[in-house]
């Protein structure tokens, strides 16, 4: 068992490295700006979903309020940039730290709640954040902030001429989120989280520090999501409360992991790789009429996949593997 | 308003109490009820007050069908049961919103002239808008009816028994699926009633459900999941808090008060006001 686990982890790392290299080469073949945009969004959502998965998948604390951290990342970066001229890199880092601090501060009361009470509390707190930002004049209120052009360089993290730098940053973020998950999966934290998810009471009695491990998951998860928010703000060069802190963002972060396989290493990546291009394509090909056909297609797929494959698409692979093993054993 | 929130929330609480499933399409149920009321008025000039029972009946059927087509299967999931329920009903909500946009366009609609619209009535020197007053009365009547139904009829007892132990009721010949389908129907019918009344004084548009759904979840959680009485009481609390917040904060922030009270309550009582600890 242990040997298999170690081998699987090495194999995962290898697959990830190969995928990352292939992804890095993709812009050589994809020159179309529209397709590049889809690739960037796919990588970003994969990263976000992977980060969400740490708290909600591995640790089992289902959060539907992660848009709060996303928005905090975006707003910290842009407020520092537009009001004080602070470089986005610093804004990104401080956004992450602030989000992690808020996640831990909220953890104190929230982690006493269980099940639906916890889920609703996360939705509610994100909604409060949204309403406050919508009414906060200094931060642009409901109109949001337009990010001024200050150059075209890695230093300023603004690129006018090409989307490629954004692409590589999104790829790096995606790799980072994946690697952090991979690394934590086999750490003390990873085992604690799974124990907390399966049975918090039993975990507690076996000496798992349930509360602290939830706090750890919340902090890591919020930090990475906030970095994603900061990236998104720079990429779009415009933010407003609804578009970075709205409830739909919390869902968009959760969906790839849910469809791909919640609490798994590859679920979020696989889910995002299928879901995001699908969303973007349905939106641009049939959603242009503004009549909601894209919503109908999208919603139907969510219903069908969640009913047919409750463990996500990843379970298709493990099922196939289990079949092979049975075959191998009988041979 | 609080009583209407209560009525919306009672349907949600009934479904939850019955089978531990949160219907994330609850707001969309409300939305189609409002559209149904609107079209009955626009095409057949049926006053919302009269169409309310029709709408409730239609929603009853709709709720039962949703259970049989979707929720029944979601409840069979062994792994990630919570997520499957959340996302299958949420997917349904997205589909319903899309369909509403497709068929009814995203325009805002309202019922211009009804029996009740715009009139006020003076009760002991306080002027009350008539639609809201009737809404409150209907809510109380519906709640009393539901209470009677659950506690006094055979079906109500079957509902209660199935909730307690779905396995054991099968032994005495109660079809679990039928009871649950009826429960969903009943929950949806209550939302239908609320939607019919609200169509009189709210704009109807495809996303209207979303704004009320969160308040409904908060209401239910405030009262304590699984407690129908709690949901009704929660509704009254939410209505009062909203009214008070509207006096203190700008209108755009009025929901903040509701959310803050919810957080405060669950921090003190993590199972809600009337939830079993």
Descriptive notes:
The complex is a heterodimer of chains A (331) and B (277). With 331 residues, chain A is mainly alpha-helical. Chain A is 76% helix and 1% strand. Chain A has a two-stranded antiparallel ribbon. Chain A is globular and about 55 Å long. Chain B has eleven helices and two strands; from the N terminus they run H-H-H-H-E-E-H-H-H-H-H-H-H. In chain B, strand 1 and strand 2 form a beta hairpin. In chain B, helix 1 runs parallel beside helix 5, helix 9 crosses helix 10 and helix 9 runs parallel beside helix 11. Chain B is globular and about 55 Å long. Chains A and B meet through helix 5, helix 11 and helix 13 of A and helix 3, helix 4, helix 9 and helix 11 of B.
The general outline of chain A is globular
Task: Give the overall form of chain B.
Answer: globular
Multimeric state: heterodimer
**Could you list the spans of chain A in which at least 5 consecutive residues all have pLDDT below 50?**
none
Helical content of chain A stands at over 70%
Question: Biggest β-sheet of chain B, characterized?
Answer: 2 strands, antiparallel
Which class do the helix and strand fractions of chain B yield? Answer: mainly alpha
- Main β-sheet of chain A: number of strands, strand sense, barrel status? 2 strands, antiparallel
Spatial strand arrangement across the major sheet of chain B: 1-2
Q: What is the number of helices of chain B?
A: 11
Largest interface: A-B, 45 and 52 residues
Q: What's the total count of β strands of chain B?
A: 2
């Amino acid at each position: 068992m242990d040997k298999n686990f170690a081998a699987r982890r090495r194999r995962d790392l290898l697959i990830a490295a190969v995928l990352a290299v292939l992804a890095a080469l993709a812009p050589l073949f994809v020159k179309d700006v529209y397709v590049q945009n889809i690739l960037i969004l796919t990588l970003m959502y994969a990263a976000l979903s992977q980060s969400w998965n740490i708290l909600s998948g591995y640790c089992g604390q289902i959060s539907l309020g992660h848009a709060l951290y996303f928005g905090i990342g975006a707003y910290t970066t842009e407020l520092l940039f537009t009001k004080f001229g602070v470089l986005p890199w610093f804004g990104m880092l401080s956004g992450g730290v602030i989000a992690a601090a808020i996640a831990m501060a909220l953890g104190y009361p929230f982690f006493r709640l269980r099940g639906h009470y916890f889920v609703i509390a996360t939705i509610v707190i994100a909604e409060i954040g949204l309403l406050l930002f919508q009414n906060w004049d200094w931060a642009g209120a409901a109109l949001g902030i337009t990010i001024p052009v200050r150059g075209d360089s890695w230093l300023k993290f603004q690129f006018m001429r090409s989307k490629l730098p954004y692409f590589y940053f999104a790829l790096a973020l995606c790799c980072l989120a994946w690697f952090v998950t991979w690394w934590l999966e086999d750490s003390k934290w990873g085992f604690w989280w799974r124990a907390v998810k399966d049975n918090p009471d039993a975990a507690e009695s076996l000496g798992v520090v349930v509360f602290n491990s939830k706090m750890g998951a919340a902090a890591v998860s919020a930090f990475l999501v906030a970095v994603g928010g900061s990236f998104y703000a720079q990429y779009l060069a415009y933010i407003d409360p609804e578009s970075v802190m709205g409830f739909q963002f919390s869902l968009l972060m959760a969906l790839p992991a849910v469809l791909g396989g919640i609490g798994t290493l590859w679920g979020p990546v696989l889910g995002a790789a299928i879901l995001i291009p699908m969303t973007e394509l349905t939106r641009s090909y049939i959603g242009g009429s503004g009549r909601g056909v894209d919503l109908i297609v999208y919603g139907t797929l969510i219903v069908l996949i969640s009913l047919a494959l409750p463990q996500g698409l990843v379970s298709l692979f493990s099922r196939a593997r289990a079949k092979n093993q049975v075959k191998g054993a009988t041979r | 308003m609080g009583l209407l929130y209560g009525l919306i929330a009672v349907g949600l609480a009934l479904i939850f109490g019955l089978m531990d499933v949160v219907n994330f399409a609850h707001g969309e149920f409300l939305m189609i009820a409002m559209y149904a009321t609107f079209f009955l008025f626009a095409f057949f000039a049926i006053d919302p007050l009269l169409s309310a029972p029709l709408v409730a009946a239609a929603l009853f059927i709709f709720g039962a069908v949703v259970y049989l087509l979707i929720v029944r299967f979601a409840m069979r999931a062994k792994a990630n049961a919570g997520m499957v329920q959340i996302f299958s009903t949420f997917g349904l909500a997205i589909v319903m919103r899309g369909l509403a946009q497709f068929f009814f366009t995203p325009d805002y609609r309202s019922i211009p002239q009804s029996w009740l619209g715009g009139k006020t009535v003076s009760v002991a020197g306080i002027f009350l808008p008539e639609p809201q007053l009737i809404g409150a009365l209907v809510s109380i009547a519906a709640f009393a009816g539901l209470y009677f139904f659950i506690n006094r009829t055979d079906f109500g007892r079957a509902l209660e028994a199935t909730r307690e132990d779905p396995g054991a009721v099968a032994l005495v010949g109660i079809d679990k699926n039928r009871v649950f389908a009826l429960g969903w129907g009943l929950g949806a019918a209550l939302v239908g009633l609320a939607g019919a009344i609200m169509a009189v004084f709210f704009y109807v548009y495809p996303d209207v459900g979303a704004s009320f759904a969160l308040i409904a979840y908060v209401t239910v959680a405030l009262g304590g999941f699984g407690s129908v009485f709690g949901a009704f009481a929660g509704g009254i609390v939410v209505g009062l808090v909203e009214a008070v917040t509207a006096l203190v904060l700008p209108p755009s922030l009025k929901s903040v008060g509701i959310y803050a009270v919810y957080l405060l309550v669950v921090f003190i009582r993590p199972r809600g006001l009337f939830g079993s600890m």
